[in-house]
Amino acid sequence: MATHDIVGFSIVVVLLATSVITTAGCKLSPSHYQSTCPKALSIVRAGVAKAIKNETRTGASLLRLHFHDCFVNGCDASILLDDTPSFVGEKTAAPNNNSVRGFEVIDRIKASLEKECPGVVSCADIVALAARDSVVHLGGPSWTVSLGRKDSITASRSLANTSIPPPTSNLSALITSFAAQGLSVKNMVALSGSHTIGLARCTSFRGRIYNDSNIDTSFAHKLQKICPRIGNDSVLQRLDIQTPTFFDNLYYHNLLQKKGLLHSDQELFNGSSVDSLVKKYARDTGKFFRDFAKAMIKMSEIKPPKGSNGQIRKNCRKVN
């Protein structure tokens, strides 16, 4: 991805500032840190802006980090825990290993918050805010993030391997995976629009460019030159071939042209009832932005298991 700043219009999804959501016994509220750490949101926003200025790809990485966290036992920062001699976390699970990025950015933001208000802001809330701020910084919509999450004291490598849909997923598998998290088909199609930014490795799209029939021929041939049947596993390609560092709706335009990079992407426009949503988002950026923001709010409030103990980690990589 290019490393220039991008400014775009934002459509703000307005929620009542007083809204409160109960998640696993904890009340989430946009004003959670208003008295305990009033500079929390500005510190996260500044940390995200600095990281994206250094490497624009970071914005997509932080958004993906939030997704991969929430799909495994809720949005509890379990994905941030490092392995230890007696503990295997989620970082080495198949969907995450050598793939999920942005951990150092979260570390730096956490360090700044610990200086400002020690032991107050959870790592899970940082991840949720960083995802929103990344989208806004890259020209996408904003939304109100309810806060007050606790950080998990454990993680699940096995659930990470089974709960996060792989890029080879068909439509049925995608629907099932999102439904398991309480997310609708509409939520799924809107959230998939996050692939309007970011990059993917050759290993993620190799099967599509050699095996799929629902793919533009010239598009496939071009990709085959950089991603052979064997080798070049880590070669990167834009998820959105046109504007990979700008949050827009061109991802859906690409699907209409059979130029979705991942098999799971093109499954959203492959002769099913879901096609109508893809057409709608390709036609109306505002509609996509509004539905994306609503879906992000819903995803960010996926509940951890009942009875799960939580804490405010001092270091996001390990329990206190």
Write the layout of secondary structure elements.
Layout: E1 12-13, E2 21-23, E3 26-28, H1 40-54, H2 57-70, H3 103-116, H4 123-137, E4 142-143, E5 151-152, H5 157-163, H6 171-179, H7 185-192, E6 199-201, H8 202-211, H9 217-226, E7 236-238, H10 250-256, H11 263-266, H12 275-283, H13 285-300, E8 310-311
Parallel strand pairs: 1-4
Antiparallel strand pairs: 2-3, 5-8, 6-7
Helix pairs in contact: 1-3, 1-4, 2-4, 7-13, 8-9, 10-12, 12-13
Descriptive account of the structure:
The protein is mainly alpha-helical. Helix content is 43%, strand content 6%. The protein is built from 13 helices and 8 strands. The protein has helices spanning 40-54, 57-70, 103-116, 123-137, 157-163, 171-179, 185-192, 202-211, 217-226, 250-256, 263-266, 275-283, 285-300; strands at residues 12-13, 21-23, 26-28, 142-143, 151-152, 199-201, 236-238, 310-311. Strands 1-4 form a two-stranded parallel ribbon. The longest helix has 16 residues, at 285-300.
Short description:
With 320 residues, the chain is mainly alpha-helical.
Q: Notable features of this structure?
A:
about 325 residues, two-stranded parallel sheet, disordered N terminus, Haem_peroxidase, iron, heme, peroxidase, lactoperoxidase activity
